[in-house]
Amino acid sequence: MKRTRLIAALDTQSLDQARHWASALDGHVDAIKLGMEFTYAQGFSALREVAGRNPLFLDLKLHDIPNTVAKGLSSLAPIGASLLTIHASGGTAMIAAARQAIDASYPPLHRPVLLAVTVLTSIDEAALREIGVPATPREQVVRLGRLAMTAGADGLVCSAEEIAPLRDALGDAPVLVVPGIRPAGTEANDQKRIMTPRQAAQAGADWIVVGRPITQAADPAAAAAAIQAELATA
Ligand SMILES: O=c1ccn([C@@H]2O[C@H](COP(=O)(O)O)[C@@H](O)[C@H]2O)c(=O)[nH]1
């Protein structure tokens, strides 16, 4: 059975803080996620330094007209990220343009995994209805997941609750990257669709993304090691 891998989300504006976490977590995580909070504060040049030898998940969630997303992805090529995100709700033309930009701008052996974010893990059914989507998160994730994979995405960002329905609908092909992970006894914060590391691994996540339960722990390295132990015995 495949191993579920752990991505630590280092959400901070501070370069020193990000360096400190990355150094403490070295060897305890499988990849480092940096997103808009860090990138907007510190710029692109700091990304590779913080990720170090770890694969970099650059989570900027691009969502714009197809041309702008395509050019944006081309501009990101020198960073050498291993995983990149766009929003599936950008639609078929935007996702297809993203696929073309990756294929044209990145060396074949260093192409990042193009992930489409389906429904943010902070969104529940009431929030979906509020934005005019009369569906459950599960229905909407499967709908957008199918659309994104048909348009050329390599994988999807979803909550652990949708792993089984996505596998039923789309099989093993999509790389499933799963935030909204909360080890037992930790706070949900702003996340709405959550599961434990063990539950996500048992459901078939390729990667889980964990931020605050690691970064806000008294000992982030011990928190990451405990999650790895949970994944190893799932
Ligand atoms: O649907 C999504 C997509 C991305 N994220 C990102 O994952 C981490 C989760 O952090 P926690 O502190 O573990 O809640 C964060 O960087 C988000 O931007 C997500 O949570 N949900």
From TrEMBL:
GO terms for biological process: 'de novo' pyrimidine nucleobase biosynthetic process; 'de novo' UMP biosynthetic process. GO terms for cellular component: cytosol. Substrate binds at residues 11, 33, 59-68, 121, 182, 191, 211-212. Pathway: Pyrimidine metabolism; UMP biosynthesis via de novo pathway; UMP from orotate: step 2/2. It is an enzyme of class 4 (lyase). One of its GO terms (molecular function) is orotidine-5'-phosphate decarboxylase activity. Its EC number is 4.1.1.23. It holds the Pfam family OMPdecase. The active site is at 59 (for ompdecase activity), 61 (proton donor), 61 (for ompdecase activity), 64 (for ompdecase activity). Belongs to the OMP decarboxylase family. Type 1 subfamily. Homodimer. This is Orotidine 5'-phosphate decarboxylase.
